[in-house]
Predict the structure.
Amino acid sequence: MTTGHEPVGEVLAALADPTRRQILDLLAAHGQTTATVIAAKLPVSRQAVVKHLAVLDRAGLVTGHRKGREMRYTVQPQQLGVTARWLTNTAAEWDARLTAIKNITEAGSGGH
């Protein structure tokens, strides 16, 4: 049975790496670009960028398409939205739990 959290986990794992976050920022700024252009702006090799792009692609954060001999990548923001909604819902659930604990604690101590 699928819980629906697997894509969120992949997104969070992909975003855990600062180089991948930089790659997403560069792609967002350029709209569409190649691994070669990205590598020129980062202190990593083109091969490392390609590996990072593969992780981002598996997480659904980027997509690549061939244009001539080049592979051009673009950001796919949908999974970021799904992940942001999950984080917001999780935060709200924890806020409710903490408020309930606080209320129980205050009621048990007579409000002191």
About this structure: Helices lie at 6-15, 18-30, 35-40, 46-58, 78-108. The chain has a mean pLDDT of 89.
